[in-house]
Design goal:
The protein is of the alpha/beta class. It has a single domain, classed as NAD(P)-binding Rossmann-like Domain (Rossmann fold, 3-Layer(aba) Sandwich), CATH 3.40.50.720. 44% of the residues lie in helices and 15% in strands. α5 links the parallel β5 and β6. It starts with 9 loop residues before the first strand and ends in a 5-residue tail after the last helix.
Length: 255
């Protein structure tokens, strides 16, 4: 993206205390956007926002559960109160609860659905209503996963939610295009983040089975995300951009 290509834009990014979400916030702020950085972990949210502020970016923390309907409304109200509008909504928050299908608990299933699907659905709804009220359109982006395209052991519930998000983006094209609102999805493959790097074998394993020879960096995913919410993608909607170094083409299992 060109320098300051998001000047004057206001964005919310959920699940952004670290990893992909944080990098998206950092890049948006560096490109001139005012960013509301959400994370369920209050300490993490404030530390992340402060790190962006220290490099000259405009960013405020908004800690809370983005899977909670009431909190979503509060987050939108805060955004409009502070910045007067909203232009970009990135639903990045999600949880991964591994488990064997035959013994997967109802509690785990419902939690994954609540955060990954419910939170995304109602965040998009709230953002779209704000865009409609403002006039002039807006951009919505969902974070999916390659597990929405290829089966992965012990991720039946998670993969199901990610495939559903991609279908949601397609469905919303019908309802939101009249308001000049784009809805797209970025689907990361294996990505080196603070969480995945806790596994000492992660980089080695995924480097062997990824055609490009390494897992993605958070910058790789953020670059794709910023394109999809930029003015350069204003005629792209209902699409999914897979960023996985070619893994879904060959799909060898890491397990």
């Amino acid at each position: 993206m060109e320098e300051k290509s998001f000047d004057g834009k206001v964005a919310i990014v959920t699940g952004a205390g670290q990893g992909i979400g944080f990098e998206i916030c950092r890049q948006l702020a560096n490109a001139g956007a005012a960013v509301i950085l959400n994370d369920i972990d209050e300490t993490l949210a404030h530390q992340a926002a402060e790190a962006i502020q220290q490099t000259g970016g405009k960013c405020i923390a908004c800690a809370g559960d983005s899977g909670n309907y009431g909190f979503i409304q509060e987050m939108l109200a805060l955004t409009v109160s502070r910045f007067g509008r909203l232009d970009i909504a990135i639903a990045n928050a999600g949880i991964t609860l591994f488990g064997d299908f035959l013994s997967y608990s109802q509690q785990a299933f419902m939690k994954v659905m609540e955060v990954n699907l419910g939170g995304t659905f109602f965040f998009a709804q709230a953002a779209a209503n704000q865009f409609k009220k403002q006039g002039g359109g807006g951009a919505i982006l969902f974070t999916s996963s390659v597990t929405g395209h290829q089966a992965h052991k012990q991720l039946a519930a998670y993969g199901m939610t990610k495939a559903a998000l991609e279908m949601l983006a397609k469905n919303l094209v019908i309802e939101l295009s009249p308001y000049k609102i784009t809805v797209n999805t970025v689907a990361p493959g294996a990505t080196a983040t603070e969480r995945t790097m806790n596994d000492p074998e992660y980089r080695t394993t995924w480097s062997k089975i990824t055609p490009m020879g390494r897992p993605a960096s958070t910058e790789d995913i953020a670059d794709a995300a910023l394109f999809l919410v930029s003015d350069k993608a204003k005629h792209i909607t209902g699409q999914t951009l897979i960023v996985d170094g070619g893994w879904t083409v060959v799909s060898p299992s890491p397990i």
